[in-house]
Design a protein that fits this description.
By secondary structure, this protein is mainly α. The protein has a domain of about 55 residues. The protein is built from four helices and no strands. The chain is elongated and about 35 Å long. The chain starts with a helix and ends in a 5-residue tail after the last helix. About 15% of the residues are buried.
Length: about 80
């Protein structure tokens, strides 16, 4: 396993743990830091392992950093009844 893939696994674990904090303050700051670290990491993975592995890791990172699925339900509770 190349060093870039080891770093990618560490990044994915950190992103997963950050996703567990979705409702807590500071979540978006951590997500921004993960994005800032993930972009160059994606390039490094692509250089060391080829474009298909790089694309696979980019998609894995995008799936981990998606919008929390419970967020739309929270927004509906803030609306007055009947809207």
């Amino acid at each position: 396993m190349t060093p870039s893939l080891i770093c990618a696994v560490i990044w994915l674990v950190a992103a997963g743990l950050t996703g567990l904090r979705a409702a807590r303050p500071g979540h978006w700051a951590l997500a921004g830091a993960l994005i800032a670290a993930g972009v160059p990491l994606s390039g490094w993975i692509t250089v060391q392992n080829g474009p298909w592995i790089g694309l696979a890791m980019l998609l894995a990172g995008a799936l981990v950093l998606r919008w929390p699925p419970s967020a739309p339900r929270r927004d509906r509770r803030l609306l007055p009844p009947g809207e």
